[in-house]
Amino acid sequence: MMISQSTAVLAAGLADPVFGSQTVFRTILDAFSAPGQVFELDDGLAGNPTHLPTAAAALLLTLADYETPVYLSGEDNETRRWLAFHTGAPKAVTQAAARFAVIDASFDASLAAFNLGDDRYPDTSSTVIFLCDALDGGLPFTLTGPGIPSSTVFAPLGVSASLWREIADNNAMFPLGVDLIFVAGAKLAGLPRSTLVHGAF
């Protein structure tokens, strides 16, 4: 039976869905345990949409399912079809409805518009995946908080000073607020809401 090129792209995913997703999930836990530290995924990803970096694709394959609405800051039909095929994740019509979100430097709304959780269930907040050109070479900011022995400098390329200011405001709302994962290629770094950001905004 002939398989069209578009179907072949949709069929690509984690080469070993069980082992691959376990590996990715462990990396996510490590990234949130050591904020600002860069990790590289070796996930066996067989393919991903054109505009979705390898790390972001692996994260969504591991975390998203039919009960987790996903928001895309740029409506990318290829990514949306790929995501629905592999995970069944529905489209988040608004930011507040998103369990997971994928945004990039063109994002011009506010992080506060995502689900920030509530006092009873702070864990229901959105997790935001930010697409970067690189995880170094950008504006440097100092991070402190749980998982950081003293302090560390994090400088992802493509994150503006205004977005850093929003991230600092988000962290100040702990235990409410969104958690962030920065990705570039196959690399990722976590920034949980418990991390404090210091720098010139």
Summarize the structure in words:
- This protein has 201 residues and is of the alpha/beta class.
- It has one domain (5-198): Bacterial phosphonate metabolism protein PhnH (Rossmann fold, 3-Layer(aba) Sandwich).
- It is 28% helix and 17% strand.
- Strands 1-8-7-4-3-2 form a 6-stranded mixed beta sheet. Strands 6-5-9 form a 3-stranded antiparallel beta sheet.
- The longest helix has 17 residues, at 17-33.
- Residues 1-11 have low confidence and may be disordered.
Please give a quick description of this structure.
With about 200 residues, this protein is an alpha/beta fold. About 30% of the residues lie in helices and about 15% in strands. The chain has one domain: Rossmann fold, CATH 3.40.50.11310.
- By secondary-structure content and strand pairing, the structural class works out as alpha/beta
| Cα distance spanning the termini | 57 Å
Number of helices: 5
CATH architecture: 3-Layer(aba) Sandwich
Radius of gyration equals 16 Å
Order of helices and strands: HHEHEHEEEEHEEE
The CATH superfamily appears as Bacterial phosphonate metabolism protein PhnH
> Hey, roughly how much beta strand do the residues contain?
15-25%
Helical content class:
25-40%
The low-confidence parts are: 1-11
Largest sheet: 6 strands, mixed
Number of strands: 9
Could you name the CATH class? Alpha Beta
What is the average of the pLDDT values?
Answer: 88
Overall domain count: 1
